[in-house]
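Before going further, learn to read the protein records used in this course. Taken together, the tokens spell out the fold as the letters spell out the chain. A record is reproduced here so that you can trace the correspondence yourselves:

***
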Amino acid sequence: MLQPSYSELMDKLNESNSEQDKINSRYSIVIAVSKRARQINNKENLLLDIDKFYGNEKPVSMAIDELYNGKIKIITNLEDKSDTKLGNNNNNNNKA
């Protein structure tokens, strides 16, 4: 089982979000983690040296860790809720 759990991850993601930006759907987390894991697997937009910082962890575990630790965030388009984007905290938005 992956740690943190969905509920822990959702609580962490919503700590600093306003009511309007709260993430209420596990689906949003799953899609964001999936997109980020795909980027990591393809070695795109890497934030850390994979071998040095993650060792033998799988891309999904790395993506969850990045999301939980605030290295990336979920950006939802208010006009189109189906469009989920990832952005890092350096204001370089990576559409995934």
